[in-house]
Specification:
single chain; alpha+beta; two-stranded parallel sheet
Length: 78
């Protein structure tokens, strides 16, 4: 179920339905303000992915997600 519009209300509603939220859990974000509605439900860790830093904390996560998207698109198109 994709999120229709990138808005705070939609993000909060979607994540609240799909995830177990607590302040002990950390949600990595890219710093977008659409996640700010979750600050009382989960710990937000916001930072930009620095693609020129190979050992950046979120670099390989971003690469992995991109690879999975490509695999799924190829699988769907077959």
């Amino acid at each position: 179920m994709p999120v229709a519009v990138d808005s705070t209300n939609n993000i909060v509603r979607f994540i609240s339905k799909k995830a177990i939220l607590s302040k002990e859990r950390i949600l990595n974000t890219d710093g977008k303000t659409t996640f700010l509605g979750l600050t009382d439900k989960i710990t937000l860790k916001s930072e930009k992915i620095l693609y020129d830093e190979e050992n950046h904390r979120l670099y390989w996560l971003s690469v992995l997600i991109g690879d999975i998207k490509i695999i799924l698109l190829v699988y769907i198109m077959e």
